[in-house]
Structure formats: C-alpha cells, structure tokens
Design brief:
Radius of gyration: 17 Å
Distance between the termini: 12 Å
Order of helices and strands: EEEHEHEEEHEHEH
Structural class: alpha/beta
Largest sheet: 9 strands, mixed
Number of strands: 9
Number of helices: 5
Strand content: 15-25%
Amino acid sequence: MSSPTKAPHRSATELKITEIFRSIQGESASAGWPTTFVRLTGCPLRCTWCDTAYAFHGGEWWTIDAVLEQVGNNGCRHVCVTGGEPLAQKTCLKLLTRLCDAGHRVSLETSGALPVADVDPRVVKVLDLKLPGSGEAARNDWQNLDHLQAHDEIKFVVADRDDFDQAVTWVREHDLERWTVWFSPVWESLDATTLADWLLESGLDARLQVQLHKVLWGEKQGV
C-alpha cells in the first residue's frame, strides 16, 4: 500500500484505512473483475468466522482526496469499499459519492447492522445478513431492506446446516428473492459441494458463491 496522506486529526474529509489494493473481485455479481479494494478500519461486530480481523484496529488516516488519487493510480473501473464495517465511519458516505462522481463502478460490502439509507443510490450495496453461526444474528437491521434497490445484493455466509435452514426461512419470510441472494460457505468449516447440494434441494432462486480470491491465493492478505 502506498504511503497515505496522513492527517493530524480526524475530520469530515478523513477516514482510517487499513489497506488499498488491486486484485480480482472474488465475490458478488462483480466477481472476476479487476477491482481496487478500499478497506476501512474498524468494525462493531465480532463474527466468529471473520477473515479480516486484522482490520479491527490500526490503520492510517487518509484524506478522501488521497484515497481517490490512489484508486485512480490503480487504474480499475471497479472499486469495492469494504472493512471491517465501512459504514462505522460516517465519512464513508462521502467517499462513496466521490468515487461514483469520479466515474467508478462502486460496490459497498456492509454487514447489514448499520443503516444504509444514506448510501449514494449509484452504489451497489452488498448486504451481508448475519446468521446464527456468526454469533451476530441479533445485529441485523431489517429496516435496511426498505432502502435496497434492484441492483443491490444480499449475502449469507453459512457455517452449517442450521445456518442454511435459517437463511432459507428468512429468504421466504422477507421475500429476499427480489434481489440477487448469495449463499457462501464459511471457508474453513463447510464444503462448497455440500452447500451446493442444500441449495439445489431448497428450490430457492439464489446463487452459490465460492470466494474466488481464496481459490486463487488462499488466505493471503491484500489480495
């Protein structure tokens, strides 16, 4: 990661960033595209299977202008703002708008625990609804569904059969098939083939997702 423009204090134009890097998008409908990832520092959740706990703390202060400069230097049309939980920093909303204004195709990976109502409508919101196996299912803010658009997506990270059954129940109760719904296995604990079989048996109009970046590079940070 290039050296950031450090700020002496936090302001409305600064964010704490863990890393900015160029890679192949491994998830969502944008999977396979060369993408610049902007990973913000901090998260109020502690999912049991979290694979980015290194983003909970640390990081460096960047101005929004500095982030846009680095993203521009990476030369990718697609930009993914992620975390941690990026919406835990209010300045994230301004960053998303500025990235859209600069002509990027922007996606936001968010836990669904924080409000998405004020996210720029041009952004593709990928709402990661938490299942019981995460330990954070009580944090889902179901009012967020009222602020999703047709291009937005919903993701379930499934640890076991109980998680899968709960996800199926929620899909039907909340009519989630209005959006693209993804089922993704917890990398360490659930075989993707098993999840594929469950999905086929369920009859849901939903999609299986395997984290392409981990297939390519494993658990390496910054890819």
